[in-house]
Design a protein that fits this description.
This protein is an alpha+beta fold and 205 residues long. The chain has two domains: 14-172, Roll (Pnp Oxidase, Chain A); 174-205. Helices cover 18% and strands 34% of the residues. It has three helices and nine strands; from the N terminus they run βββββαββββαα. The chain has helices spanning 78-90, 174-185, 191-202; strands spanning 19-23, 33-36, 41-48, 55-64, 67-72, 114-121, 127-141, 156-162, 165-170. The strands form two sheets. Strands 1, 2, 5, 6, 7, 8 and 9 form a seven-stranded antiparallel sheet that branches. A two-stranded antiparallel sheet has the order 3-4.
């Protein structure tokens, strides 16, 4: 088989605005996220001595780049303050108590670290890939610049998170796929009929 005979199963290209990002412990911040970059990753390698040339061999440890995203700031600074509060409790500048009201129990709104999820969607807005970032915490919150000599502009900022690692898994919306399949199969029995069937399915009969 020649390479010309090999065709991808999906010829649609990935869109940069088809995504959703959620941090478990930051309900307000999630709404204001504008951009996010999927971090880099690298596999460490080791050089093995050889009389002629050092030979690289695969290592056994991965390293991950920082998670960096930008967000727009509302006039009440809700999202910004969630990051600020998280960071100041971790690095309390006024006390030796570096946890404050934070808890080491995962999954809480005041956990020391939190999991986060990046959902990458298809061009039809169905979930396609799920990237889960484990045990994230903020390490850098960018400055805010105010000016009275320029025209009005809306403020945005950038925050950097560290984390242990991220996992990538397919996240196809099985329920939506099933509904599309049902629609295709029963399209010839009439629109009102299949709508009634779908309503029964969604209500659990």
């Amino acid at each position: 088989m020649s390479t010309l005979d090999i065709q991808p199963s999906n010829n649609s290209f990935l869109s940069n605005n088809k995504y959703e990002f959620v941090i478990d412990r930051l309900p307000n911040f999630t709404f204001f996220v504008q951009t996010i970059s999927l971090p880099s990753m690298a596999l460490n390698s080791t050089l093995v001595a050889n009389p002629t040339v050092a030979i690289p061999v695969p290592g056994n440890q991965l390293s991950f780049g920082p998670l960096v995203l930008s967000f727009i700031i509302d006039e009440d600074l809700q999202g910004w303050f969630e990051i600020y509060s998280w960071m100041t409790q971790l690095g309390n500048p006024e006390s030796f108590d570096k946890l404050g009201t934070l808890t080491k129990v995962s999954g809480q709104n005041n956990s020391v670290t939190s999991d986060a999820t990046l959902l990458v969607k298809t061009n039809s807005n169905t979930n396609n890939w799920k990237f889960t970032f484990k045990d994230i915490f903020p390490t850098d919150l960018a400055e805010l610049a105010f000016s009275s000599i320029e025209g009005q502009d809306f403020q945005s900022s950038q925050v950097t998170f560290s984390y242990s690692h991220f996992q990538a898994n397919r996240a196809t919306d099985i329920w939506q796929t099933f509904k599309n399949y049902v629609i295709l199969k029963i399209y010839n029995i009439g629109e009102l009929h299949w709508k009634k069937i779908m309503q029964n399915i969604e209500s659990g009969f």
